[in-house]
Amino acid sequence: MALLTRFFQIPEQSFFLLGPRGTGKSTWLRARLPDALWLDLLDPVLHRRLVARPERLRAALAGAPAARTVVIDEIQRAPELLSVVHAVLEEPSPPRFVLTGSSARKLRRGEVNLLGGRALNRTLHPFMAAELPRFDLARALEVGLVPLVVDSPNPEGTLGAYASLYIDQEVHAEGLTRDVGAFARSLEAISFSHGGQLNISAVARECEVERKVVGGYIGILEDLLVAFRLPVFRKRAKRAMVARDKLYLFDAGVFRSLRPTGPLDRPGDIDGQALEGLVAQHLRAWAAYSGGAASIFYWRTRGGSEVDFVVYGPNCFHAFEVKNARAVYSADLRALRTFRSDYPEADAAILYRGRERMRMHGIWCFPVEDFLREMVPGRGLLEWVGA
């Protein structure tokens, strides 16, 4: 596949570019920054030399004085280099550093904040629907939108190996846990929580391990950027709210590959989880690429009313409910109507699998495929309908 245009905008100043394996960080940067000095820490010889003596980075910079951009790929493999980068950035007319990584764990331990405001933090996400020349919703729900998978001649096979890639290359190689087998089993159990409230105790019982061990495993997934949480929307709350965050795997296809299935599983339930996750990953990418001006939440009262997503920021306040159904009925609007009774300032919409655009009781009903295609960073989520 030809290199596609991404919504991510390369900053003028130094920045960290984080993202899960396979999101295309290196491939995309090599095409966009062809004149950069490139230091690939997956090269064992280079990695060994720089870890042994981080100050050798200065020698590499001196050897390419014309390079105004320096890319250090997989920086988490040598966080010791950040001290040298910091020192160089304090000098007159430093180059722009682009520091890529697929894990935030070692960077945090390596005090990434020592760079302060000298380097921005950015994330590259899976493809958004509007980045693709042709977006197929059904296909996206099956194999996801990770560029490594989408570009593969065998997407199903590549997706099937994705979890193993993380376990073998990240978890095992980096020594993030002593029992890789238990982690792999927990990963399957955690997949059942995709799109649901995170109950660590329930996962621990399922895996027959201690609660704190499962908490550590989820922390690893978040550090590897494979999973993320949505907090409960509590601003000006008028009702008693639940306490637990919701958990999502970062890509619908990765969720499908990890979620065990059997005779007792209903395909519609799994499809619904995948669809909700697909919307979640798009909203997250939209917010990140739009400058981070909006945050994503969910809303659930202790009485059981729930709205899948609340997007809140200085210039937006939206509530979205996702339905894996071909039709919308009045009963489907109940949670959104409850939410709007508390927050009349919010625009509300149901995203469903049908084809008709409707408005019922002041609530939009959109085909989810249309909504995803029209989601463009820097543009309002409902601007395309004039809302």
What is the topological layout?
Blueprint lengths: L14 E4 L6 H8 L4 E4 L3 H9 L3 H7 L6 E5 L7 H9 L6 E6 L3 H5 L10 E4 L13 H7 L3 H4 L4 H18 L7 H12 L4 E2 L2 H8 L3 H13 L3 E4 L15 E4 L2 H7 L8 H23 L5 E6 L5 E8 L2 E7 L11 H9 L4 E6 L5 E3 L2 E5 H6 L14
Parallel strand pairs: 1-4, 1-5, 2-3, 3-4, 11-12, 12-14
Antiparallel strand pairs: 6-8, 7-8, 9-10, 10-11, 13-14
Helix pairs in contact: 6-12, 8-12, 9-10, 10-11, 12-13
Order of helices and strands: EHEHHEHEHEHHHHEHHEEHHEEEHEEEH
Helix content: 25-40%
Instruction: Please state how the strands of the largest beta sheet are arranged side by side.
Output: 9-10-11-12-14-13
Strand content: 15-25%
Low-pLDDT parts are none
Q: SS-based structural class?
A: alpha/beta
How many distinct folded domains?
2
Question: Radius of gyration, rounded?
Answer: 22 Å
Query: Could you tell me how far the N terminus lies from the C terminus, measured between alpha carbons in angstroms?
Result: 36 Å
Count of helices?
15
Task: Write structural notes for this entry.
The chain has 15 helices and 14 strands. With 387 residues, it is of the alpha/beta class. The protein has 2 domains: 15-123, 3-Layer(aba) Sandwich (Rossmann fold); 129-385, no CATH class. The strands form 3 sheets. Strands 9-10-11-12-14-13 form a 6-stranded mixed sheet, with helices on both faces. α14 links the parallel β11 and β12. The protein is globular. The protein starts with 14 loop residues before the first strand and ends in a 14-residue tail after the last helix.
